[in-house]
UniProtKB/TrEMBL annotation:
Domain of life: Bacteria
Membrane topology (UniProt): Multi-pass membrane protein
Keywords: Cell membrane, Membrane, Peptide transport, Protein transport, Transmembrane, Transmembrane helix, Transport
SUPFAM superfamilies in UniProt: MFS general substrate transporter
CDD domains linked: MFS_DtpA_like
Protein name from the UniProt record: Peptide MFS transporter
Transmembrane segments: 23-42, 48-68, 80-99, 105-124, 145-169, 181-198, 236-254, 266-284, 296-313, 345-365, 377-395, 407-432, 444-465, 485-503
Length: 515
């Protein structure tokens, strides 16, 4: 095959589009918790619940958006619609921040904006990355480096977002939040505009055919009727099962709170119910062999442990934002760094450390001592626990309101970044290797479902952040100060790491033939 030396220009178009989308998402995320608490005067627990519901649903709607794109719209139209919908969502947040003194109107605009962001992300996220591979022939060796370049777009966007949006929005004055949201809106419009203008020219396969166009309706054989009918029945069963589980979860949580339905967390119920019904639907498929079921079982087990990782890791946009704003000394000389800037630390560290970790795995692999995928996941969880242990000792015996050095939060992000590099790329590779081809997209959806559940869980855990001297109880564990709060994540992540490490040998046997 004639292998071109460079990469197709379409890759760089997708790079720029993804960069601006991530700029929009992380720019808004850097300000969102601070906006709710400082401008709309939410208490930290309520703000955390809203944050968890939003970030949870962001990873749930791609299941719907991916289905619509595959069946009706195609990738291109879905990306444009998703990008414009998210731009509208960011603009509604801008309007909300313009009228933050009128709390009822500001809240209504904020929730409408969040809804548009959730809907738009559902169309955008599952479609843009799938187009990268389709720019190349099946046997093109440039694919791996192409995805690496594309992933750099994610990190460039998430690095710039807190710096720019934080600079104009996180000034210490509530009336300035609107400029951060407007910057996020402009970033999303730039991404949509660039993609719309150049997509027809550059988003093509090696033969020059357009990639991601509207699916053509082909004439199906009569033999296809039965499988489609069976699929429809299973889909209907999944919907009914999800609704029933949602209702049961809500009744249970309402009963716990002593007030049926009034305190029901319907969004949390929906996320957790979907995270149960979709995996059950897949693994009970009668066409699966026992080996395939075992391998899918490994994906489910790893995905379960990943929930604990991301629930603790995603405190970066929640409780750790409070900590950066309220109890971290951010003065560098005569300049006080905005709290939002801390959210740029992770992507900068990712770009810096990723080549080092790739070299480490290669070095160990050549000597036959590279850890298995489950053990790498366990190492990631252990590093997460270590990061929280580091900052817990940094705040031990510190009185409320006393600010600590930036060293503690910076150290936490450094250790967590190393944990992410052990866990995140390995997890995606694991799903790709273990999935039967006919279920690969659905199982990747299950992987993102675990992220959805984790983000919702993260919001709930952030609600235990200590405030106003109030003691909070999590499953019998008393959270009275920052040390207690951070140690909660040490225990949670550390326990998950030990359990996963102990059973990694068993999981490796279930994966036999794929590693």
């Amino acid at each position: 095959m004639n292998q071109a030396k460079g990469h197709p220009k379409g890759l760089y178009l997708l790079f720029v589009t993804e960069m601006w989308e991530r700029f929009s998402y992380y720019g808004m995320r850097a300000l969102f918790m601070l906006y709710m608490v400082q401008a709309l005067l939410f208490d930290k627990e309520t703000a955390s619940q809203v944050y968890g519901s939003y970030t949870g649903l962001v990873y749930l709607t791609p299941l719907i958006g991916g289905y619509i794109a595959d069946r009706y719209w195609g990738n291109r139209r879905s990306i444009v619609v998703g990008a414009l919908t998210m731009a509208i969502g960011q603009f509604l947040l801008f309007l909300s921040a313009c009228y933050f003194h009128e709390v009822s109107l500001a809240k209504w605009l904020m929730f409408c904006g969040l809804g548009m962001l959730i809907l738009g992300n559902g169309f955008f996220k599952p479609n843009i990355s799938t187009m990268v591979g389709r720019l190349y022939a099946a046997d093109d060796t440039r694919k791996d480096s192409a995805f690496t370049i594309f992933y750099m777009g994610v990190n460039v966007g998430s690095t710039l977002a807190p710096l720019i949006c934080g600079l104009v929005g996180n000034t210490g004055h509530p009336e300035d939040f609107k400029w951060g949201f407007l910057a996020a809106c402009i970033g999303m419009l730039l991404g949509a505009s660039v993609f719309s203008v150049f997509k027809n020219k550059y988003i093509c396969d090696p033969d020059g055919n357009p990639v991601g166009a509207v699916p053509t309706q082909t004439k199906r054989d009569a033999d296809d009727t039965a499988p489609r009918t069976a699929t429809s029945k299973r889909t209907c069963g999944m919907v009914i099962g999800t609704l029933l589980l949602t209702l049961l979860f809500s009744i249970d949580w309402s009963a716990t709170n002593g007030n049926y339905f009034h305190n029901a967390d319907w969004i949390g119920s929906l996320i957790y119910a979907t995270a149960i019904t979709v995996p059950l639907l897949i693994i009970t498929d009668k066409s699966l062999t026992r080996i395939e079921q075992a391998r899918i079982g490994v994906i489910y087990i790893i995905a379960f442990f990943v929930i604990f990782f991301w629930a603790a890791y995603e405190q970066a946009g929640a409780s750790l934002t409070f900590f950066a704003d309220e109890q971290t000394d951010r003065h560098i000389g005569g300049w006080e760094m905005p709290a939002a800037y801390f959210q740029s630390f992770n992507p900068i560290m990712i770009v810096t450390l990723a080549p080092l970790f790739a070299a480490i795995w290669s070095f160990l692999g050549k000597r036959g001592i590279e850890p298995s995928s489950p053990r790498k996941q366990a190492i990631g969880l252990f590093l997460l626990a270590l990061g929280y242990l580091f900052i817990a000792f940094g705040v031990k015996d510190v009185e409320p309101g006393v600010k600590v050095s930036m060293v503690w939060l910076t150290g936490l992000y450094l250790i967590h970044t190393m944990g992410e590099l052990c866990l995140a790329p390995i997890g995606l590779s694991l799903v790709y290797k273990l999935s039967p081809v006919r279920f690969s997209s659905l199982l990747m959806g299950v992987w993102y479902l675990s992220t959805s559940a984790a983000n919702k869980f993260a919001g709930m855990l952030s609600g235990y952040y200590p405030e106003n001297g109030i003691s909070k109880n999590f499953l019998g564990y008393q959270v009275e100060n920052l040390f207690d709060f951070f140690m909660l994540f040490v225990f949670m992540s550390g326990t998950a790491a030990v359990i996963l490490f102990v059973f990694s040998g068993k999981l490796q046997k279930m994966m036999k033939g794929t590693e």
